[in-house]
Write a structure and sequence with these properties.
Length: 118
């Protein structure tokens, strides 16, 4: 992105908050603190954007949680789970957990992506 480019607007989320809550094993209820609910919603938006960015031109901007292909939904949920577990509140020696995430996403989505050089 260069200085004159518009700031991209996040695409609609690819998963629902209920699906994401199931992925991270949280029960959505009145007992879930609003801060946790907000954090989960942020993780959904960022994860959806990451997956769409990975797919580049092969992503359909019209996808919704009801229309997104299942492998792409699954990949999005994996990213949501990764962000939920790595929120920055436990910065102990975890190695490089992002390496495992990148490998999993590549394995799930590589056939749905045009080859690109970045």
């Amino acid at each position: 992105m260069s200085a004159g480019d518009p700031i991209p607007v996040p695409a609609p989320p690819l998963v629902t908050i209920d699906e994401a809550a199931w992925q991270v094993a949280e029960v959505l209820s009145a007992s879930l603190p609003q801060a946790d609910r907000d954090a989960l919603e942020r993780a959904i938006v960022v994860a959806s954007g990451d997956v769409l960015d990975y797919l580049s031109d092969r992503a359909d901007p019209a996808w919704t949680p009801d229309t997104v292909p299942e492998p792409i939904k699954h990949a999005t949920l994996l990213v949501v789970g990764f962000y939920w577990r790595n929120r920055g509140d436990d910065l102990g020696d975890k190695g490089r957990p992002a390496d495992a995430l990148e490998a999993a996403l590549g394995n799930l989505l590589m056939r749905r992506r045009d080859p690109v050089v970045r």
